[in-house]
Design a protein that fits this description.
Blueprint (H helix, E strand, L loop, with lengths): L10 E7 L3 E8 L4 E8 L5 H13 L7 E5 L2 H7 L6 E6 L5 H4 L24 E4 L2 E2 L5 E3 L6 H10 L4 E5 L8 H13 L4 E4 H4 L5 H31 L6 E4 L4 E3 L1 H6 L7 H17 L4 E6 L4 E7 L2 E2 L1 E7 L2 E8 L2 E3 L5 E5 L5 E7 L18 H7 L17 H16 L3 H23 L11 E5 L3 H12 L3 E4 L6 H6 L3 E13 L5 H20 L8 E11 L6 E5 L7 H20 L8 E12 L20 E7 L4 E9 L8 E3 L2 E5 L2 E5 L3 E5 L5 E5 L3
Parallel strand pairs: 1-4, 4-11, 5-6, 5-9, 9-10, 12-23, 13-21, 21-22, 28-30
Antiparallel strand pairs: 1-2, 2-3, 7-8, 11-12, 13-14, 14-15, 14-18, 16-17, 19-20, 22-33, 23-26, 24-25, 24-26, 27-28, 29-32, 30-31, 32-33
């Protein structure tokens, strides 16, 4: 049994590396003690910053029993272009798949739109004479003796990683396996990604893109995780170390190093997993998860108690085939920079000041107005209390940079300019929520809004008013909630197999065999973490379509169907037809169907800490302080009550206008909103209909 499972895990620490801060949560399940902390991402070496904060919160690192880590290393390496030069080995005649893509224009009305250039220059895309057909049969056998010529060329041209993507390798990976073995034996200095290992699905362009992206970021991610693991061991930590994946599960550092493309949404995923647990405990099944960090605003959905996932995504305008929580990110965080664009209007983001130089009010050299600077000027923060007084905010510096960069050029006063910035940010955020709900046929009024991240509580009420949402939840220690969510995760391994079979009774044995094969493959990986077969759960899905269609709908499969052919055929048909009707308004139960892809997820369950250990204060409501706060919805300063969150006991409720402050953030309750503290210290805000 892995030390990460069981009833108690002693001292748990979760680390979430964001774009501006590293968040920490320490939970001692033996004593019930909870600590939270933040560390600016300001060190030249990320490992140093991570360990500095870890030692501050945990003391002796060797006394930690469980360590979980969400990170942006892979995402930053991709977005910032800090990956390594990549070479591509592909089937003869297919070197230009990466450049041709889908052949369409994603922004048809933008005359100046250009697709991002391929990560692999054409001369580094080398063709190999081999061929496997769509049924997996070998038409042209690969000659390993000719590989060295191509590999020598790639090495001579500075390539540090190689992606292998042969036609139809998802059906028969033999040739990719041969090439990988050859490279590992003769070119051990090269990082290698074989497409069938990272994206065993059809659609050649997306599969090639995924393999190339994985190779591109593999060395920097492996270097970071190797260095961090070594430093942890040197400081006495020798227990399991889990890395968060985009699908909401965790894996080993080795697994994350080999397949870093699976960790691109690692950080935001933790918050969504925590949201599912918290809102399930509170009795809410439909939840909009809104995470306002220092760099981005991330939105995800929980529908009917289940996290909404996708099987493919796009990062930095490049497609990736990988299971992931469906997260929409926009550049609207506390560090987002406000500027005057070419039209003479205020624009905000996606550029961010980060932790260094950071917002101007931090005093670290920032000279651009940010969202945080505007919030400070409008009274949202107490300058002496943010981050437990680790940072003393300079309101004069914030006013000066807003005046010089925004107010004077636009001939308005500082407060008007600051309020304009926040209104634009709120519009960008509400648009992201509408994209995830309204544009998918969902009504945001049927959801509650769970708001977290360092800036979540300051925007929640305004977003809820804009979207007509009546209930808001702000969890305890909201700015560290994504780190807390890491403790709710499990070990997960996903596998897929392309079939493309008519969905008829004669194909049932092949489908059944594939389901068992995928379960064996994923179960083996989870078993390597120390879980026995009885401790591993499996989830199955099938990508279905009507005959003649191109795209598919993914539907869940129930394990109890697998041993009964008639039951399986009937239930899958019913479920696909229902899904098609829900999405498109029509569906035919008896029309010819095709089963295109089968998916399997193996889960090794970890023990989950009790979220009710976060409790509110024990004191009665005290007479509040007051100060003027600008409310963008009412476009005016309002005298507002100021409360300390730690002083609010369970059962207390208060009416806006008010601000509830805690060490790392504030929660804004405008007029018309009532905030109540539940037994676990969460704040539930409800709109009072007049």
């Amino acid at each position: 049994m892995t030390p990460l499972s069981g009833e108690k895990s002693g001292r748990r620490v979760a680390i979430d590396v964001g774009g501006t801060f590293i968040d920490y949560v320490l939970l001692d399940e033996n004593t019930g003690e909870i600590r939270v902390d933040k560390q600016p991402v300001a060190s030249e070496v990320l490992t140093d910053a991570v360990l500095t904060g870890l030692e501050r919160i945990a003391g002796d690192i060797g006394t930690i029993d469980q360590l979980l880590h969400g990170m942006t290393v892979a995402l930053n390496a991709l977005v910032e272009g800090r990956g390594v030069p990549v070479g591509l080995l592909t089937t003869k005649g297919f070197r230009d798949v990466l450049e041709i893509g889908r052949g369409g224009r994603k922004q048809v009305y933008d005359l100046f739109y250009r697709e991002p250039p391929p990560l692999v220059e054409r001369h580094l895309r080398r063709e190999i004479e081999e061929r496997i057909d769509a049924r997996g049969e070998i038409l042209i056998t690969l000659d390993p003796g000719k590989l060295d010529v191509e590999l020598d060329y790639l090495v001579a041209n500075g390539v540090k990683a190689v992606a292998i993507c042969f036609l139809h390798a998802y059906r028969n990976p033999l040739h990719e396996q041969m090439v990988r073995a050859h490279i590992e034996a003769h070119y051990p200095e090269l990082a290698v990604t074989a497409s069938h290992e990272i994206a065993s699905e059809w659609r050649e362009y997306e599969r090639t893109s995924t393999a190339v992206l994985n190779s591109h970021i593999q060395p920097p991610v492996a270097s970071y995780l190797s260095g961090l693991t070594q430093e942890l061991e040197r400081k006495g930590y020798k227990k399991p170390f889990a890395i968060m994946r985009s699908n909401g599960g965790v894996c080993s550092p080795q697994g994350a190093s080999e397949k870093p493309v699976y960790t691109l949404m690692s950080g935001p995923s933790g918050g969504v997993i925590g949201a599912r647990k918290l809102c399930g405990d509170l009795g809410f099944d439909n939840v909009i998860c809104a995470d306002v960090g220092g760099t981005t605003f991330d939105v995800a959905l929980i529908e009917h108690g289940e996290v909404v996932e996708v099987t493919g995504m796009e990062v930095a305008r490049r497609p990736i085939l990988a299971s992931s929580i469906d997260i929409k990110s926009v550049g609207a965080g506390g560090g987002s920079i406000a500027r005057i664009d070419h039209r003479g209007s205020i624009a905000v983001g996606p550029q961010s000041a980060g932790a260094r130089p950071g917002p101007a009010c931090f005093g670290f050299g920032g000279d651009e107005p940010t969202v945080t600077d505007c919030q400070l000027v409008l009274g949202y923060f107490d300058p002496e209390k943010l981050l437990g007084a680790q940072i003393s905010l300079d309101i004069d510096r914030a006013r000066d940079v807003i005046r010089r960069k925004l107010a004077e050029p636009l001939q308005m006063d500082v407060e008007q300019a600051a309020a304009g910035v926040l209104s634009i940010v709120e519009a960008n955020m509400s648009h992201a929520i509408r994209y995830m709900t309204v544009e998918r046929g969902l009504d945001p009024r049927d959801f509650v809004l769970l708001s977290y991240g360092g800036g979540g509580g300051l925007f929640a009420a305004r977003l809820a008013e804009e979207l007509d949402i009546k209930t808001i939840i702000v969890p305890r220690f909201a700015s560290n909630f994504s780190a807390w969510g890491l403790m709710m995760s499990d070990y997960m391994e996903d596998a897929t197999q392309v079939l493309v079979r008519n969905f008829i009774a004669d194909e049932f044995s092949a489908i059944q065999s594939t389901l068992n094969e995928l379960a064996d493959r994923t179960g083996f990986v989870i078993g390597e973490y120390g879980f026995s077969p009885e401790e591993i759960d499996f989830l199955y899905r099938a990508d279905m379509r009507y005959a003649g269609q191109d795209y598919t709908i993914s539907i869940p499969l129930d394990r109890q169907w697998f041993d009964d052919q008639r039951l399986f055929m009937e239930k899958v048909r019913e479920r696909f037809t229902d899904a098609h009707r829900r999405l498109y308004g029509h569906g035919d139960l008896h029309a010819p169907m095709e089963l295109v892809v089968i998916r399997c997820r193996a889960i090794g369950r970890l023990s989950k800490p009790d979220m009710t250990v976060w409790r509110g204060g024990e004191r009665e409501l005290q007479r509040p302080r007051t100060r003027d706060i600008f409310h963008t919805g009412r476009k005016a300063f309002t005298r507002s009550s100021i409360y300390e969150r730690d002083d609010l006991a369970a059962g207390i409720h208060l009416d806006g206008p008010a601000v509830i402050e805690e060490w790392s953030t504030s929660i804004l309750a405008p007029s018309g909103w009532r905030a109540a503290v539940d037994e676990s210290g969460n704040i539930l805000m409800t709109y009072l209909d007049k």
